[in-house]
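Hey,
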Amino acid sequence: MRKKVFKVGLVRHILILLLSALFLASGASYLLWLALGSPKLPRGGTATLGEVYNGVKLALAVVAGVGAVVALAVAYRKQRLQEEDDRRAELNSRRDDIKLYNERFKAAAEQLGSEKAAVRLSGVYAFQALADDWAEGRQMCVEVLAAYLRMPFSGPFEKPKSEVQVSDKGQVLIVSSADSIEQRNGYEELQVRLTIQGVFASRLRSPKVVKSSESWTKRLSRRRGPQPNEYGDPAWTDVSAVLSGATLVDVDFHNCAFVDLNCEGAVFYGDASFSWCHFRGEARFDGAIFVQSAIFSGGVFDAYAGFTNVNFIGGVYFNRITRNFDMEFNSSRFQAVAQFNHMTAGSKGGLYFTKAKFNGSTTFSGTHSFHERSFVDVSASRKASFKHLPPPWKNLGGKLAKAASSDGLHDA
């Protein structure tokens, strides 16, 4: 129907152009006649050979002009029709792609909701492949996988034990222990969750740039100038993750990049590594529990970083980080070693430990730019010790307080 309408419009357009061309040709002929001095046609019905020749040339020129106008009109209209067809084909292709993505999303969601762990694993990889292909829906895929990690989980389960036995006839038998169904299901669920964490890590990690071999002269000249970035962009860029209240096991997000990361109230079993991560947006870990080590060394925090009311049971490492905004550890508990060495702060990089409690060895070597209220109401147990505590703060009877300037004391 649309093509028929376009054809009718084309004929109408051509007729209009023909009439316009005839009018222009007539006008041009009249102007040419005036330019030639308004010659009179011969009355005797005879004309010289030159007059006939000039008339034929004039007629051919007019016809050629009209034909050129018509040809341009037809070509222009065809181009418009072709562009319209291409645009319509692109819209149809885009509509088909979106339909296919939605079907893949639905299939992956059904797999992820299966009762069988093997099917759930397939759903995880289906979401990974979909997020790789569908840039516009990538954040939605990430949110689904993050929501799965936020589902209730009672913690890591050990692998069901089995042993090899040899029968009297020499047959090798694998005998599984009588583990409970809950333990087996829990271990299978753990594998699904570890797979999701691995997907996040592999897609959000900045890959190291492979440098081609070069001569010693080029290496020498490169060292004299600014060093190029050693890492490229991750496969998934501009991704935020909400893992609040999630149960995470053996997290290894080193060298990953996040826009916003919300881990409020999350429980981290095993070592949690966020070393050399780049937090472009807010990093929220308020109320989290780190059962073992929490490693953030080398990280870059471009926005607010909240670690308030966090329970650090294992060691805490914030060495050589760059904070370009405030970082708060208010009301947090440090049960073991805590290191905050060689931190670099921007103009808004305040560091606060209000009402925090320290129970282990804590060092602040090479870290400066503390706020005057950084250690308000901070307490320390008998096991706690401080090295390079910024003056005038001192550990006075289990409380960090400002020492009198007349004491002449500097570091504890």
